[in-house]
Amino acid sequence: MRIAVLSETDSAEPRVAAVPETVKKFLALGADVTVQSGAGLKAGMPDSEYEAVGASVAASAVEAARDADLILKVRRPAAEELKLLKRGAVVVAIMDPYGREAELQAMAEAGVDGFAMELMPRITRAQVMDVLSSQANLAGYRSVVDGASEYGRAMPMMMTAAGTVPAARVFVMGVGVAGLQAIATARRMGAVVTATDVRPATKEQVESLGAKFVAVEDDEFKQAETKGGYAKEMSAEYQKKQAELVATHIAKQDIVITTALIPGRPAPKLVSAAMVASMKPGSVLVDLAVERGGNVEGAKPGEVVVNDRGVKIVGHLNVAGRLAASASALYARNLYAFVETLVDKESKALAIKWDDELVKATNLTHDGAVVHPSFQPKADAAVADRPQDAPQSEQASVGLSKTGVSQSPSTQATGAA
C-alpha cells in the first residue's frame, strides 16, 4: 500500500494532511509513505522531520502521486492533481461538496474513490474522526485571539494606581464547538462573556463555563429542541422578540463572535447593519461564517472592514488554518483514525468495506460515478433533498456534536471553523 501526502495547491491553505506522528503510524500499518516536498513547511514541519520517521520525500506532486493507492489532502484535489492519480486510487480530504457538482463529477470521471471527512456520521466510534469538531475548536479559540488583537483595549479588568480598566464584554452567537471554545477562551482572558443559542440545552453549557445565557426564555423556547438535539423552527413572533433582545444586547458589547453555518446553504444573517451601527466606536465583530456569506452584514471575506464609526468587522478566511501546526496535528489524527478502518491488518493493504456505515456516509465517488445520495446529479435531486439524507455535519472549515450545534435565533446551524 502506497500513501501519498500532497501539498495544498491553494496558497492560502497552510495545513497539511499528515504529520510525522501519523506518518509513523501509517508505516506501522505496513504502508510506504511519500510526502511531497514542502507539504508541511507552512505548518512548521520541514521535509527532514518526515524523513526522520521513515517517509520518502518527493520533489513534485507528479513523483509523490505516482502509483499511489491512497492520497491524503486537506482540501479536495484540484483538476490538475486528478490527472496525476491512477484510476481506483482512494482520496481522503475535506471535500466541500455542497454546490460543487462539476468538481465532484470531475473526480468521478478521474476514477478515484473520494471520501469527504466532513460527512463523518455522528456516532461514538467516529468521534475521533470528526474533523469538523477538531477544526472548529481551534477556530473558536482563534476567533477570540483575533478579536482581542483588533480590540484597542485590555480584555481583563485591571486595577492600577492610575485607575481601573474595565473588563471587555464579549458576546458569542451560536453555542456549538466553536462557540463553546470561544466562551472558554474569552473567560480565561478575563472578559465578561454572554452567549445565545436557540436550543435550551445550551443554557447549561454556557453557564457551566461561567458565562451568562441571553435568550427570550418563554414557553416556546423551552420546546425549541427535537429529541435528537437539534433546533426546531421558531415562530415569527419569537424570532422578533429574540431579535429585539439581541439588538439591545449587542449595542452594549465590545466584541461579538458569530459562528452560525448551515451545511450547503448561505450563512444566516444574525447581525444587521443597524446592529453594527449601534455598537461603540472601537468595538469588534468576528464573523466565523464569512466564507459562506457571513453572519454579519457588511463582512467581507479575507478583510477587516472598519465602518465610519470605527467598528471593525473581522472576516478572516480559514480561521483554523491560522493555527496551522495545531490544526494539522488534529486533522492528521482524524485522518489516520479513519484510514485505519480501511486497511486490512493482515494483508497490509486497502480493503474497503463498502457496507460500513462510515464508508457509506463519507464516500462521494466510486466506479466512475458520484454515489453519495445527497450529491447525486440533478436528475436525482428529489432523492438528494430528502431530510434523512442530509448529513449532520458542519462547515469545512469548522464541526460539532449534537450537543454542540451552533444556531441562529431561528435556524439550525453549525459552528464554523
Strand-helix topology:
Layout: E1 2-5, H1 20-28, E2 32-36, H2 47-52, E3 56-58, H3 61-65, E4 70-75, H4 79-82, E5 90-94, H5 101-109, E6 113-116, H6 131-150, E7 158-160, E8 163-165, E9 169-173, H7 177-188, E10 192-196, H8 201-208, E11 212-213, H9 219-222, H10 236-250, E12 255-258, E13 260-261, H11 273-278, E14 284-287, E15 304-306, E16 312-314, H12 324-340, E17 343-344, E18 349-350, H13 357-362, E19 363-366, E20 369-370, H14 381-384, E21 414-415
Helix pairs in contact: 1-12, 6-7, 6-12
Can you offer a commentary on this structure?
There is one protein chain. Strand 9, helix 7 and strand 10 form a beta-alpha-beta unit. Helix 1 runs parallel beside helix 12, helix 6 packs parallel to helix 7 and helix 6 runs antiparallel to helix 12. The C terminus is likely disordered. This protein is 30% helix and 18% strand. The longest helix has 20 residues. With 417 residues, it is α/β, with parallel strands linked by helices. It has 14 helices and 21 strands. It has an eight-stranded mixed beta sheet, sandwiched between helices. It has a seven-stranded mixed beta sheet with strand order 11-10-9-12-14-16-15, with helices on one face. It has a two-stranded antiparallel ribbon with strand order 7-8.
